[in-house]
Amino acid sequence: MFDFIRKHTKITMWLLFLLIVPSFVLLGLNDHNRSGDSSATVARVDGKNITQADWDAAHRVEVDQIRASMPTLDMKLLDSPEARYATLERMVRDRVMAAAAAKSLLTTSDQRLARELQGNPQIAALRKPDGSLDMERYRQLVGAQGMTPDMFEASVRADLSTRQVMTGVTATGFSSAGVADSALNAYFEKRELQLARFSPATYAAKLKPNDADLEQFYQANPSFFRAPEQASVEYLVLDADAVSKTIVVNAQDLKTYYDQNIERLSGPEERRASHILINAPKAAPAAERAAAKTKATELLALVRKSPETFADVARKNSQDTGSAANGGDLDFFARGAMVKPFEDAAFTLKKGEISDLVESDFGYHIIRLTDIKTPKQRSFEEMRPTLEADLKKQQVQQKFAESAEIFTNAVYEQPDSLKAVAERLKLDIRSASNVSRNALPNVTGPLANPKFLAALFSTDSIEKKRNTEAIEVGPNQLAAGRIVQYTPVRTLPLAEVKENVRARWLAALSAEEARKDGSAKLAEWKANPSAAALPESLLVSRTDAKNLPGPVLDAVLRADPAALPTIVGVDLGAQGYAVVKVNKVLPRDPRDAAAAAKERAQYAQWWTAAESLAYYKMIQERFKVEITAPRPVPGQGVTEAIATQAETR
Prior knowledge:
Number of helices: 24
Mean pLDDT: 84
Largest sheet: 4 strands, antiparallel
Shape: extended
Number of strands: 17
Number of domains: 4
Strand content: 15-25%
Strand order of the largest sheet: 14-3-16-15
Helix content: 40-55%
């Protein structure tokens, strides 16, 4: 990374956040809400609605995808109003791009789609030794995303078409060297300054509050001294472990399962073969295929006459580049790994036999079977632990679905207690005290899940002590709970928080004294600059801030170069006050040609990204985008957490 990027990480990350984050998908967990309206419109693009149900469905699908790709990720990190809103914005962007592509008649040819699929590393990994695609594994791959091969390919085709909407901007973005240098030089220029700090700590030692001062501060700032709402709760968790405890595998079922699955459990038979391939694609002219067959027939006669020369003949004549160097050896393979004509022939040969010519879509094969690996059939007693685990897992999955329906209905139909459903499903009623609306650090399980906590602290739950609905708190994991005792937010008595009041009073008053002294010095030094008692000067820039507070650096860099030297004051809030004399502007350090070229290229990328964002905004207006769902307040949860910390200090 370039020097100025490495040295100025915060600015770079912020720019990347502004330009890139809206296209990322951050997702949370979703539950059914009894009072929610799934048909409600949350956004509108080109006259077409995106409903709450659409939003929820996309949310669930993408959570599953993230969970599959990052199983160790704590899903609660992504479960926030901001994350859900980002999902909606991504859906809107997809709809906008699709509408723009359709309006501009942008399509993707079969050849372009084929190149894209061939270049996909996950699909490329599904190739068989003969180069053909393993269709069963391909179906499994796309099936994991909830799609059929046709659906997946249609999705890729649509994505390629919509990419063309932005290509005209992204592929043509540029910035001249003069413009880039002018902007970058201004951004990274240096400033010489002298700084006087007025720290609250200097004034705190001189302040001695009396009881009246503390009482007055306490009465004026009750929100500083509040205890958060808390509750004692009971809750149930239904998961695979809970269901598993209720299942005992029947011995007869176990024996039947063994008899039905012995071949699968023992493993498939595998065969090892070598082959000689003479290429003759199915679409090749008849004369070309006839010539290939003639050559293959000659080679067949040769190896049948001298079987021990098969490997040498394969090395010299086989046109399968993947196996020819190894004498045609294909190693061991089971059924389903080769094209059908090849497989059928290989699995009818005896060890050491050479086949007749085998015709496939690739050409003509001569196959020699070199080994057979027959799986060892294991006894029932030997397999019993594995069989029991497999069968129990299947029964758990089946019973969990049944139990989940019972659980969901029972906590709703019997809203005043969890006892009945706990007894019916043999679940333990868990309890916890001092539970708050926001998850506490180091808490795990349902009490760390924001949706479960939100349900617990709903009005209905607090006022009527009713059960929550069944909430999905993890993969195959449901929870329901109820509040047993609730303590609302309250202002703590002065006697309990007196030391906290004293500390806050000192912090506020000492910061005020620092501001007063700093403001007085600012006025004095502005009136008589020669009397300013300031320390040695220092050079700062955006890449070398010398640990200056952010507001001070901003004030220094915003000072009008035409008015230097100048003296400015900066209110640092709880950190006091600063008076800064900005003396002069100095150019940034010279850059070598290679570094300058990299910086210009980076600037061009930023400029292109900005143009792309502006173009997207224009397309949004063209297709009349309207998001009716309210945008969450940024950082709301963080603010509340900080406030809670301050209250408990």
